[in-house]
Amino acid sequence: MDNRIRPYAWGSRTAIAELIGAPSPAQHPQAELWMGAHPGDPSVLLEAAGERSLLEAITDKPVLMLGERVEAQFGPRLPFLFKVLAAAEPLSLQAHPSAAQAARGFRLEESAGVPMSANGRNYKDGSHKPELICALTEFHALCGFRDPVMTVELLAELGVPQLDHYLSLLSGQPDANGVRALFSSILTIPSSMLEPLLASVLSACVRLVREGSPFTAEYRTALELGERYPGDPGVLAALLLNRVTLAPGQALFLAAGNLHAYLAGVGVELMANSDNVLRGGLTPKYVDVPELMRVLDFSAGDVEILSGDEVRPGELVYRTPVPEFRLARLALSEEPLDLTHDGPQVVLVVEGSASVVDGEGHVVEVPRGRSIWIAAGDTGVRITGSGIAFRATDGL
After folding, report:
1. What average pLDDT does this structure show over 253-268?
2. 49 has a pLDDT exceeding 90
3. Is 279 a catalytic residue?
4. What is the mean pLDDT of residues 316-337?
5. Are residues 150 and 261 in contact, defined by beta-carbon separation less than 8 angstroms?
6. Structural domains for the chain
7. Over pLDDT 90: what percentage of the chain?
8. Looking at 77, 146, 243, 279, which residue is catalytic?
């Protein structure tokens, strides 16, 4: 497969370039390597007969490429999008809608005639976008609302009188309703009040980092975000979220409504094939507060970190509740792993190299940083090699 690189400003100039063996540093930031059939940037299949878009190949022969089961469930479209994500700078604070919310939002914007390219367009399609991120390097993220009791302790430790009113919203009701009230109030603070409040909060963060507070990581993150996004209410909102560090091989599943922001690191990301994002700050892009509030899940608590379940020697699966995708981590060796599956697959090699052979004896060598498409109609597929690969399939 020949895959497309998205040059978003927050991307790394080295991570993806080094993974695929290209000159490093790259001329421009490289944020995401897309593997799949998303209409915005579909992969290209490199076949003996020539090159063709994976999107075109699926459209031409959906059952052969996707399998009867997947085509019956999702229609003639690949249900997942596979990525390498390389964040050198923080991404925006964001959440994704549920399937029902996406269908409703897309229908309303279409009927209202909102252009797809409009700055105020929220829904690019009618699908939900659950996602899974698995770290290739140490990976830092904000993910979901922290336990309200802990958040009250964190905000109170700042000792900022201007925060007292906002803090009382949560201390008086330390549950999902209190989180909703506090978050909504933060996003709607008038700029004339926000700037002095942020200045006081960040000054307190500096002091507490120097004193070695138990919340040093959270305060340090607020300082970094405040420097990058001055005057952005998302800097305050970030103090309500769980601050998570993933070791390589660990993963996070982000269901609909989960407020999150990736801060730094490189990982493989697997998601439903959608482009719907509702932003909540840390960005110059459009923020629709009322729509975001409708989408968000305000339940709070610790984040579950996934380490994968061994389903057979050499294969760990990161289990999620969604039918669109499943991610597995393969430890490559000389012992063949059978990859035969009655649905679509993409296999990406991130360390070492692999050899993939089908039932007819055709062999494809897959070096580090390259991926291979395995159609549902391919049988007897086996993989050998050395290093690590990730396998994306449907989750049915």
Report:
1. 97
2. no
3. yes
4. 97
5. no
6. 4-142+246-295 (2.60.120.10), 147-239 (no CATH), 311-393 (2.60.120.10)
7. 93
8. 279
